[in-house]
Amino acid sequence: MEDSWNIQEAMLSDVLVSNVYNQFFQQNQMLFKDKIVLDVGCRSGLLSILAVEAGAVKVFAIGNMQSAKRISKVLENGEKAEVFEPLTGCITQVVLPCGLRKVDIIVSEWMGHALFADSLFCQVLYARDKWLVKNGLIFPSVANLYIQGISLDRELAVEKNVLLWDDYVNQKSLMTEKCLVISVDLSSIQDDIECQRAEIKMKSKQSGKMSGCVLYFDISARNAKGQLQKLFSIAPNAPRTYMMQTVLFLKDDPLVIKEQQLLFGRLDVILGYFAPRGVEFSLGIWAVK
Which end of the chain is more exposed for a tag (fewer CB within 10 A), N or C? Predict the structure, then answer.
């Protein structure tokens, strides 16, 4: 579960997301006080530090040992140095120390591009089923994946010889209204979801040539009052974060559409450890004449 330093650095330098996480932990310290917390991935290490500061009695970290070493260094001279403990090894081989069998809370910066690409989705579900107490908390837990039609120069795809990449999409490129593809709640979703098929229905906002679609998500968590609280979005009209939108180009020629025309389609999201970036996408779109 090691991430490249570039990803870690991008996470840590993202002021918007860091502030959102920090504010949530400060406003909901009672959720973490005297709790045992497991950080799945320890990608930037920020969630581990915030859990320690919020009063967790113990914080274990699995995954990125580079970030874990940095956290230990930050805490080593403080009174909470012993609260944080990295656990080395693959998640399927890790054993909780001191005879512990369960944790109260799982935290993870699990989201990837288009939610699932390069994500820790499967690892969080594994940790949940193995270690999380009944009715335990996962942070963040709820995500909504959306799709919108776009108009971009298809020559970019030809030059790169790919039909998918991550980028910041200009709002002016949006051709349709958004459509909810998948809603995920890590607290309740089952782990037998290797293949998700979503039926798409969108209405065009303008006439032109639609060359593909853009995927993006928003992320939420349940606060101390049990309310679902939106944390941030990576939509084209939202402030930029370290997470880009994901562009999927149509395999064939651009689709010529008219304003207010209905578009239908299907998006398959296939998860697998052997797939590129851990996920495969299959997209089909057609217009109603």
Answer: C
Quick check: is 118 in a domain? Answer: no
pLDDT digits (tens, 9 = 90+) for 123-142: 999 999 999 999 999 999 99
Please give the residue range of the domain that contains residue 32: 5-109
Judgement on whether residues 103 and 162 belong to the same structural domain of the protein: no
Entry pTM: 0.92
Examine the domain organization and report whether 168 and 63 are in the same domain.
no
Q: Is residue 183 part of a domain?
A: yes
Task: Answer whether residue 18 is part of any domain.
Answer: yes
Compute CA distances 35 → 44, 54, 132, whole Å. Answer: 21, 10, 12
Strand partners, 146: 180, 216
Q: In the listed set 61, 87, 109, which residue is the last one of a domain according to the structure? A: 109
Residue 121 lies in a domain: no
Residue pLDDT, tens place only, 149-190: 999 886 665 555 556 678 899 999 999 999 999 999 999 997
Give the count of alpha carbons within 13 A of 1, CB side only. 31
Residue ranges in the chain modelled with pLDDT below 70: 1-6, 154-164, 191-193, 273-277
d(CA 252, CA 67): 43
**Number of domains forming the structure of the chain:** 2
3-class secondary structure, 36:
strand
Locus of tokens 């998500």:
217
